[in-house]
Write a structure and sequence with these properties.
The chain has one domain. The protein is built from two helices and three strands, in the order βββαα. A three-stranded antiparallel beta sheet has the order 1-2-3, with no helix packed on it. It starts with 17 loop residues before the first strand and ends with a helix. The relative contact order is 0.17.
């Protein structure tokens, strides 16, 4: 996935267990996930909310984040906390 790149800081080297998920046009890593994570996880250096209305990939990221937040809230409510 190609993304908007608005920052001057970059990921130089991935830590063990991280997977590059998105890149800027210059090839720099703009999003990572944790390979063994059991639930939604995505760290971004770009801004998917900027293009959420016009870019299907950005829309999917925002939707997945919202769904994960709702699921987490529901599981906390069921656990009483």
């Amino acid at each position: 996935m190609i993304v908007n790149s608005l920052h001057s800081y970059l990921i130089d080297e991935l830590a063990p267990g991280l997977v590059a998920e998105a890149f800027a046009e210059d090839g720099s890593i703009e999003a990572v996930s944790v390979k063994q994570a059991r639930s939604f996880n995505l760290g971004t250096a770009f801004h998917p909310e900027y293009w959420a209305g016009s870019d299907p990939s950005s829309t999917k990221i925002i939707s997945a984040f919202g769904a994960a937040a709702r699921q987490h809230a529901a599981s906390r409510a069921r656990a009483g906390g």
